[in-house]
Amino acid sequence: MNNWQRLTISLMNLLLAVFLTGEVQAAGVQRTSYVVSNLSCSSCLATIEAELKGLPGTIGMDADLQQGRVIVDHQPELGYELIASTITNVGYPAKVDWTATVPDQKAIRYTESSKYSSGCGSGGCGASGGAGSGTAVWNTSIPADKTANRTIFQVSNLSCTSCFANIEAKLKTMEQTIGMNGDLRKGIVIVDHESALNGNTIAAAITTLGYPAKVVSTTKISAQKALAAGAKSGPGSRTRRAGSGCNSRRRPCNATASSWKNFYNRYVEKPKVQ
Questions:
Q1: How would you classify the pairing of strands 29-36 and 94-102?
Q2: Is residue 18 part of a domain?
Q3: Degrees (nearest 5) of the Cα angle 144, 141, 170?
Q4: Same domain? 168 vs 198
Q5: Which residue among 164, 199, 219, 245 is least packed, with the fewest CB closer than 10 Å?
Q6: Residues 248, 121 contacting (CB under 8 angstroms)
């Protein structure tokens, strides 16, 4: 093989390498932008990020809280509609705005720890926080002379009254729920519901929103008492008042065993000793 042939082969190999490199860069990753509702503070973004990290094929995410936008970089094989439904299922309705291909080296990537704080230091929760003020009763169809159940749940990841608004919206879609109340500081949610509805079913519904919930106790109450609760401030009124919003002093609320026991002893009727 003469020098000219060697030079020709080298040039061909070089051109092939450049071509293949260009093909890899052209493939890149998919970047999809979503318009997302119910975003009120960085805690919401932390919840979405945690959920997306568990979805195979996602690479990273970024967000603009004020514009209500979440951007996700993902493998092209992962459908962007599946990402939208994943975000929607944790309580933040999402729809695709645009999608494009970006070079792999420009991809947004998850960091080991979340860049979104779980507390509400952004101060953005006040707008939706009012939806979680006071006791909420939405079902008055149950006869007042019937009995109902009052179930107390220990709930994690509660950071501001916007979280209560998300839970309330979910519970309203469930038949046989009557109303709810809660204490943000203690991480407690109280739900009045018809006896046929199991408390574990309610806990599962709350958990799907990104707020892990477990049943603490269930007691029988009169339906009249459940319906009347909406006419006065409930035990959580101090921390669920309208316009309380979120500030840098408010911390994520994970109830301790002693806190919910004290709460239970104060607000739940005890059986009378015969």
A1: antiparallel
A2: no
A3: 120
A4: yes
A5: 219
A6: yes
* Structural domain includes residue 254: yes
Q: What is the pLDDT of residues 77-131, one digit of tens each?
A: 999 999 999 998 887 889 999 999 999 999 999 988 888 765 544 334 433 333 3
- Nearest Cα to Cα of residue 154 among 45, 263, 40, 247: 263
Q: How many CB atoms lie within 10 A of CB 165?
A: 22
258, 224: one domain = yes
The Cα 247–Cα 214 span in angstroms is: 27
Q: Side by side, which strands form the sheet with 29-36?
A: 58-64, 69-74, 29-36, 94-102
pLDDT tens per residue, range 231-267: 443 433 333 333 333 433 333 344 444 444 455 455 4
Q: Residue holding tokens 């149950």?
A: 142
Cα separation of 165 and 41, whole Å?
Answer: 13
User: Which token pair is 32?
Assistant: 């999809």
Question: pLDDT tens across 183-197, in order?
Answer: 887 889 999 999 999
Q: Average of pLDDT values for 160-174? A: 84
Question: Which pTM value belongs to this model?
Answer: 0.48
Structure tokens at 266: 């104060």
Q: Most distant CA pair in the chain: distance in Å?
A: 110
Of 97, 118, 139, the last residue of a domain is: 118
